[in-house]
């Protein structure tokens, strides 16, 4: 950068970086950091050579202004109704629909910007507001479901709503709904039913584009008769990601192909190129065609839902076209930075949106790394080098975000992307758009592109599903440490600098590759928790699921919770992807720990709330063996045992007195059941773990008779008791507590469960015995870590 006429040439690229530093600092630091930053900047300006002072002062000012802007934006998005939501109070609101209405079965969800509200219908205009809330509308009939799908953004609603606070994550590294809504500018949620809502349609530009998007979706449904292919094409062509079949979406996510279904630079480049080609074919001059294409891109971004990736692509594409119009040339990093700054000025909270992060990070990676990558293996044809460079650059950057947010990165992701992405980009995407356009002329003209797209997708999905089922190692990654994130980011940032300095000889490239491999190894955290036993009592609602990790050697899974599923009364009420605790709670936790093999599954007994979640896990992991109680299995237990047998997993049981060791100082004992007449809850498997001289007793759902047998067989005192049967009054009798004298008791129960667990009587007994009590309904997941030096506890939710 050089001084120009007494001023300075500010790099947009560097300005965007320091702007992000200012926003992130304000999000996590005390406002006093602004004073510290100002003081440090003043000191630097006073000390450094004169030619650099203006640059330091300028970029420091941008950082501080970005921080002040964040505080101002945050202040504008505070909540007036949050105190009422804490009391779950009912209010009347008038507001504007601020997002597409998404219906799933008998529930519709969308954002509403409240314009006025009151505690009663008569004074609903008492308080003026511009607060956004997440609204959930319950539907009572197919007619209501059909009607609510016609509601559009911009329409006005008046309704009584029940306020509540969004739930925070109740398990380690789980999806945090409260945090997600916070970065959407939402602090509270509301619920109402359809009949109580008065909706007034209001014309808006976004509503018109949504109408056209819905019209396009219906046209795609008519063209592609296979529902799975139709849903896929609606996502690929129109950005309707919620239309993709859940199993197909999961496969794309597991193999690192989800980006294909998001509107990105690929879509913008292809659509704009096709549109430009059509304009030139009908005789429009090139410069005018560029201008018309820019206007077309604006409409296209609105049509596909204006996601972060679509807006970013549209902005960068439009700038590129403007450069063509005026004959200018801009650096790709500056175009990227301009789009970033503009979007963050509109909404700085976007910096915490996963889609925004991935879109901008991967695009920057392509801009920076592809040119350097093309200079490697120069004898290889340029199209192959380009394909490999784009794939590896995207994988290199996205790796950090995927393991942080999703704990998932397939070892064959780079190869799958290298092969599949070009095929889908060259066939499915263009042929899909061509089919839709030709359908406007005459449906018969769309037959061939529809057939080609459908055949290709079915052909390519078969091997992809087969690869997904292979259970490849190094697919699930433990949640990365903050130091790893920082060092890996610095590593990526230093690479282009070193290349420019001349460090790109063969030995330099080999050293870089070795360092990259070391980062991959470090991401697996091979030395983490080597000499510890980590026991996590997961919050699975009204049920049990306990994960025991013995150093880095063994993993035990005791039960996996379960979700009671009721068939929908009518077809329209069916959920696309209903909540299931094994799939939505236990699986994400195991992934976040980087667990890929479960050495022993303990099915304590056959109740749904203990073993129902296992069905969803069997296809995702390899297993050593399964321990059961040895009694006649329930229908559900028999089905799950059969699934394990189909996978070749041995099914075993035990007898009182049997023991085994998982290393020095770590011993398990089978205490119950034995060869007896116990059944049901009293036949629960009871195990005792002794680790580094600390004892933990796992009791399943055992009740009074079973506890009596345990005491008769000879129990000793324990350090930790997993309270039986969720704290039911039929368990944890005084005799058991007197013998075991647990220092800490853990109760697994659902929030506000219908059984009233844990019972007040059991809590009184535990208090009387001197036990400290942890409860999943109060504390969320509870983690016990035992080391040779002692033990410590971690609760997901602090006890207030």
Which spans of ≥5 residues are poorly predicted at pLDDT below 50?
Answer: 1-6
Q: Helical segment tally?
A: 26
Please provide the count of β strands.
Answer: 24
Mean pLDDT: 92
Which strand order does the major sheet show? 15-14-13-12-11-10-23-24
What does this structure look like?
By secondary structure, the protein is an alpha/beta fold. The protein folds into four domains: 3-76; 82-202, OB fold (Dihydrolipoamide Acetyltransferase, E2P); 209-468, no CATH class; 533-565 and 577-795, Ribonuclease Z/Hydroxyacylglutathione hydrolase-like (Metallo-beta-lactamase, Chain A, 4-Layer Sandwich). Helix content is 47%, strand content 16%. It contains 26 helices and 24 strands. Helix 10 (265-281) crosses helix 11 (286-303). The protein is globular and about 95 Å long. The two termini are 54 Å apart.
Write the layout of secondary structure elements.
Elements: E1 3-4, E2 7-8, H1 12-28, H2 32-47, H3 50-76, H4 82-86, E3 90-97, E4 102-104, E5 107-118, E6 127-138, H5 142-148, E7 156-164, H6 177-182, E8 186-193, E9 198-200, H7 205-223, H8 227-238, H9 246-254, H10 265-281, H11 286-303, H12 308-326, H13 332-346, H14 354-373, H15 382-405, H16 413-441, H17 447-468, H18 482-500, H19 506-523, E10 533-537, E11 546-550, E12 554-558, H20 581-592, E13 597-602, H21 608-611, E14 622-627, H22 635-646, E15 651-652, E16 659-661, E17 666-672, E18 686-691, E19 694-698, H23 704-714, E20 720-722, H24 734-740, E21 744-747, H25 760-768, E22 772-775, H26 776-779, E23 782-787, E24 790-795
Parallel strand pairs: 6-8, 12-13, 13-14, 14-15, 19-20, 20-21, 21-22
Antiparallel strand pairs: 1-2, 3-5, 3-7, 4-5, 5-6, 7-8, 7-9, 10-11, 10-23, 11-12, 16-17, 17-18, 18-19, 23-24
Protein name: DNA internalization-related competence protein ComEC/Rec2
InterPro entries: ComA-like_MBL (IPR035681), ComEC_N (IPR004477), Competence_ComEC/Rec2 (IPR004797), Competence_DNA_uptake (IPR052159), DUF4131 (IPR025405), Metallo-B-lactamas (IPR001279), RibonucZ/Hydroxyglut_hydro (IPR036866)
Membrane topology: Multi-pass membrane protein
């Amino acid at each position: 950068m050089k001084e120009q006429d007494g001023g300075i040439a500010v790099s947009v690229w560097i300005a965007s970086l320091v702007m992000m530093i200012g926003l992130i600092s304000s999000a996590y630091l005390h406002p006093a950091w602004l004073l510290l930053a100002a003081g440090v900047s003043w000191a630097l300006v006073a000390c450094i050579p004169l030619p650099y002072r203006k640059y330091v002062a300028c970029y420091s000012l941008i950082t501080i202004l970005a921080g002040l802007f964040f505080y101002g934006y945050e202040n504008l998005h505070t909540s007036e109704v949050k105190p009422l939501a804490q009391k779950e109070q009912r209010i009347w609101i008038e507001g504007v629909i601020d997002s597409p209405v998404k219906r799933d079965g008998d529930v519709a969800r969308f954002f509403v910007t409240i314009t006025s509200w009151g505690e009663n219908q008569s004074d609903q205009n008492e308080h003026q507001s511009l607060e956004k809330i997440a609204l959930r509308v319950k539907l009572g009939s197919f007619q209501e479901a059909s009607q609510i799908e016609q509601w559009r953004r911009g329409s006005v609603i008046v309704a009584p709503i029940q306020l509540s606070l969004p739930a925070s994550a109740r398990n380690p590294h789980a999806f945090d709904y409260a945090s997600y809504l916070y970065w959407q500018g939402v602090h509270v949620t509301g619920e109402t039913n359809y009949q109580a809502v008065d909706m007034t349609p209001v014309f808006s530009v976004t509503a018109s584009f949504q109408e056209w998007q819905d019209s396009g979706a219906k046209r795609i449904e008519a063209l592609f008769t296979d529902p799975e292919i139709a849903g896929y094409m609606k996502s690929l062509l129109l950005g309707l990601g919620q239309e993709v079949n859940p199993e197909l979406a999961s496969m794309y996510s597991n193999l690192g192909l989800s980006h294909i279904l998001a509107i990105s630079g690929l879509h913008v480049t292809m659509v704009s190129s096709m549109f430009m080609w059509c304009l030139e074919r009908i005789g429009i001059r090139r410069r005018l065609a560029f201008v018309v294409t820019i206007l077309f891109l604006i409409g296209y971004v609105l049509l596909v839902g204006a996601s972060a990736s679509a807006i970013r692509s549209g902005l960068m594409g439009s700038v590129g076209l403007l450069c063509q119009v005026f004959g200018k040339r801009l650096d790709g990093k500056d175009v990227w930075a301009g789009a970033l700054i503009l979007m963050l000025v509109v909404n700085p909270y976007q910096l915490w949106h996963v889609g925004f992060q991935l879109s901008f990070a991967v695009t920057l990676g392509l801009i920076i790394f592809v040119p350097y990558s093309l200079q490697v293996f120069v004898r290889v044809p340029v199209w192959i080098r380009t394909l490999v460079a784009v794939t590896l650059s995207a994988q290199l950057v996205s790796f950090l975000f995927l393991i942080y947010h999703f704990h998932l990165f397939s070892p064959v992701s780079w190869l799958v992307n290298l092969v599949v992405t070009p095929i889908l980009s060259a066939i499915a995407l263009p042929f899909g758009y061509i089919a839709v356009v030709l359908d406007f002329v005459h449906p018969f003209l769309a037959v061939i592109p529809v057939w080609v797209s459908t055949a290709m997708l079915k052909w390519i999905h078969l091997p992809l599903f087969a690869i997904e089922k292979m259970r490849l190692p190094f697919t699930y990654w433990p949640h990365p440490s903050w130091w790893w994130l920082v060092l890996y980011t610095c590593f990526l940032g230093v690479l282009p600098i070193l290349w420019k300095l001349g460090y790109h000889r063969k030995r330099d490239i080999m050293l870089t590759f070795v360092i990259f491999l070391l980062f991959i190894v470090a991401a697996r955290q091979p030395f983490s928790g080597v000499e510890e036993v980590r026991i996590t009592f997961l919050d699975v609602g009204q049920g049990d699921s306990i994960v025991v990790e013995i150093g880095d050697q063994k993993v035990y899974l005791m039960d996996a919770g379960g979700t009671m599923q009721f068939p929908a009364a009518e077809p329209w009420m069916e959920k696309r992807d209903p909540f299931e605790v094994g799939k939505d709670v236990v699986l994400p936790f195991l992934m976040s720990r980087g667990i890929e093999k479960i050495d022993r599954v303990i099915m304590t007994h056959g109740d749904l709330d203990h073993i129902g979640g296992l069905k969803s896990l069997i296809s995702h992991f390899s297993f050593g063996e399964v321990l059961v109680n040895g009694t006649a299995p329930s229908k559900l237990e028999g089905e799950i045992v059969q699934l394990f047998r189909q996978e070749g997993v041995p099914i075993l049981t035990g007898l009182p007195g049997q023991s085994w060791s998982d290393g020095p100082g770590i011993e398990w004992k089978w205490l119950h059941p034995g060869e007896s007449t116990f059944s049901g809850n009293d036949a629960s498997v009871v195990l005792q773990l002794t680790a580094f001289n600390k004892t933990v007793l796992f009791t399943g759902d055992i009740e009074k008779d079973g506890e009596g047998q345990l005491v008769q067989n000879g129990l000793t005192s324990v350090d930790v008791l997993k309270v039986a049967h969720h704290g039911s009054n039929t368990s944890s009798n005084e005799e058991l507590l007197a013998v075991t004298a647990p220092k800490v008791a853990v109760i697994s129960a659902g929030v506000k469960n219908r059984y009233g667990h844990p019972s007040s009587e059991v809590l009184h007994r535990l208090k009387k015995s001197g036990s400290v009590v942890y409860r999943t309904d109060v504390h969320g997941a509870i983690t016990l870590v035992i080391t040779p030096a002692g033990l410590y506890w971690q609760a997901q939710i602090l006890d207030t």
